[in-house]
Amino acid sequence: MTNEQLWVKYKEHNSNEAKEALIIHYVSLVKIIAGRLFTSYNAHVEFDDLLGYGVIGLIDAIEKFDHKKQIKFETYANIRIRGAIIDEIRHLDWIPRSTRQKYKRIEDAITKLQAEYGYDIPDEIVAEEMGMPLDEYLKLLGEVTTYSVVSLEEKIDDNTSFDIKSSNQDFEPETHYIDEEMKMLLADVIDKLPEKERLVLQLYYYSELTYKEIAEVLSVSESRVSQIHTKAISKLRISLKSVY
């Protein structure tokens, strides 16, 4: 039985067997999304937990999906699955307040210095602004890497809400506009980042390389990749804070 037939059987004839078949068919999508997020959160949550959260999102997506609309299920489900996982991670509240405070100090310093230096701010200058030795600042960047990713995820999720409400486009017009505006803003900021920061973002998010693999490409240490990633993410988040 084809996927199209399964959708008709489930949505139009309320077949539990068809629903189960759809879940089994699309669970591979959950594994891909959970695996991708696991690279950011593995020190704090088990992969099987992320997989479980994602399956909940998949089931929700299958139940709410309108198979008659002109949109691929994978596109819709990706958003629901990722959102379900991120929501559950938020509820865990595993990030210490001290880490959040440390990251805010970095973000505040970069925000202040961007007015003078733009997006290419030397580490030495940020360390001086924070009143700490360079090695201590670099160590701090590594410590808050995971939270920097989480904070950006939350900022993006808080300002986008996807759903299928129109037969003419994938999402509601207002939401579609906000989503496109955010993409344009992030793309503009990424274009202004120093070359290494742009490259790390490209390799991590688009090529989906690990820190270890990126380190080999750039001929630097994994800790240095982590530091570069944190700086790039903080600049993206600052740009979103200024608008949303």
Automatic annotation (TrEMBL):
PROSITE patterns: SIGMA70_2. The keyword Chaperone does not apply. InterPro entries: RNA_pol_sigma-70_dom (IPR014284), RNA_pol_sigma70 (IPR000943), RNA_pol_sigma70_r2 (IPR007627), RNA_pol_sigma70_r3 (IPR007624), RNA_pol_sigma70_r4 (IPR007630), RNA_pol_sigma_FliA_WhiG (IPR012845), RNA_pol_sigma_r2 (IPR013325), RNA_pol_sigma_r3/r4-like (IPR013324). It comes from the Bacteria. Residues 210-236 form the RNA polymerase sigma-70 domain. Keywords: DNA-binding, Sigma factor, Transcription, Transcription regulation. It holds the Pfam family Sigma70_r2. This is FliA/WhiG family RNA polymerase sigma factor.
